[in-house]
Amino acid sequence: MWKSILPLSRRLAALALALQLAACAHSSTPRLDARFGDAVRLAMVQQVRAPAQAANRAPADGLDGPSARAVLERYRASFAEPNGQPVAPVQFMLGGGSGK
């Protein structure tokens, strides 16, 4: 009896595998795939204030070199010790809240 069931179960397993592979090959979302990424592209376009300024090659007026360097160094130093205070360690409590 087992000799007749074993080939049948192998055939059924092969058929099930073939059906699963065929189902994976068919895309069920062609409408969504065609518009994939539209929301991201729209958000990026909406964040640009003046798109025509990308073609402007004139140098930007602003700070001179030494002033810009001083601003950048102060900015970087603010991350080392914000407001001159040492960074407090992060503490995690696991378990109950009994405090023992």
Summary keywords:
100 residues; mainly alpha; 4 helices; 54% helix; 0% strand
Secondary structure blueprint with pairings:
Blueprint: H1 2-25, H2 30-34, H3 38-46, H4 65-80
Assembly type of the chains comes to single chain
Mean pLDDT equals: 81
Number of helices: 4
Major beta sheet, specifics?
none
Report on the architecture of this protein.
With 100 residues, the protein is mainly alpha-helical. It is 54% helix and 0% strand. It has helices at residues 2-25, 30-34, 38-46, 65-80. The chain is flat. It starts with a helix and ends in a 20-residue tail after the last helix. 0% of the residues are buried.
Summed up, what is this model?
This protein is mainly alpha-helical and 100 residues long. It has helices spanning 2-25, 30-34, 38-46, 65-80.
